[in-house]
Amino acid sequence: MTSIIPVILSGGAGTRLWPLSRKLMPKQMLKLMGERTLLQETALRLGTPPMVVCNFEHRFIVAEQLREVDIQPRALVIEPVGRNTAPAAAVAALMLAESDPDALMLLMPSDHLIADPEAFRQAVGVAVPLALAGRMVTFGISPTGPNTGYGYIKAGSPLVGGHVVERFVEKPDLATAEAYVASGDYTWNSGIFLLPVALFLAELEAHAPGMVETCRTALAKGRRDLFFFRLDDESFAGLGAQSIDYAVMEHSDKVAVVPVEMGWSDIGSWSALWRETPQDEQGNVVIGDVLALDSSGCYLRSQGQLVAAIGLTEMVVVVTDDAVLVADKSRDQEVKAIVEALARDARPEAIQGRRDWRPWGWFETLAEGDRFKVKQIHVNPGAKLSLQKHWHRSEHWVVVKGTAMVTCGDGSFVLRENESTFIPVGTPHRLENPGRMPLRLIEVQSGEYVGEDDIVRLEDVYGREAPAPS
Description:
Jelly Rolls, alpha/beta, Spore Coat Polysaccharide Biosynthesis Protein SpsA, Chain A, 6-stranded antiparallel β-sheet
């Protein structure tokens, strides 16, 4: 029986959903529409353990989010640098070819919404015979109207369950999009593919010479790192960035499209998220501590403090712990320009929020001033920080929730809720969570320097080097 192996590509940054989505915590890792992240929903969609390809900075977050939904991935493959979808797909296909060369690879972005997963699974079932007959199959979304934010696929001659792809079209202007929809010959390009592994590699070698060989070298020189597989930095970095459409699909005569209505969206903007989220009688999406008066058609979201809106129409207001976005909803595609401007000014808000993610959990800076810093620290069950010391600061720890195992100098002891300890400057120490519940504590640092690079790692279960952030 032919195997269908889900492969999830999780390398995007989602800058159009700033300030919620940042480089170090992109949209696929956020709970935008429910209790699960987009990555988790994607991983659960087919009911089969997926292979996940992600970047180095996200690896521990991806692993933790899969663990939260009880998924043991087939593999977690780490790209040293982003090179778009074609090299990532090539690496996944090469890995599958070693163990199951007759497999069908179901390639899926990690950050798409599919409101009707059963319709998606049925479409995959329709696509399987086409793939077994020697077609690379893409899934075309039946348009609900003209949309200039999506690429289009023109259907050609009919096949059982689908059509030959006549051509792929880049994002059109409005008049062109209206003509496409009126013709009935076009679907939106979902970026989801069912690919026979051997056929995909052969077509890629034919249309993108050298990519497969370079990816093969990156695999051969790669290495295991904990529960990840890290591609070779130098080999993979030598690849050009190419999308799978541009590298192979637009040039191949072996591509078929299966049309499907499954409540799909790439959640590529605030207006897209507004459309997919339940609205009140005034057409507002209201999330968090928000009071809206005489406002309509707005997306209003707060992650903390009260937001009061009066007389707003078709606006986006998003408040996080370190940034506020106010934008006309019709111009939400320009949010990317805000992120680019922040990056040019080397502003940290372009990259991350106040919460800093680590393999053991996260920390958040609550206050900082001359010679002090106050953090909230969250340690996942069973996780532990590195054994470390600091040259310039001492630390006070107060347990707020859970149980902490503390190593300080030559001794180890347990701290419970409302108990505290002091870590003198220069003393080797470690914090770990031996329990089954998350550990929360408050850390107060004091000293002549409280920067994140004041750390010497003496031992680390995650293989990180020192000096580096804790």
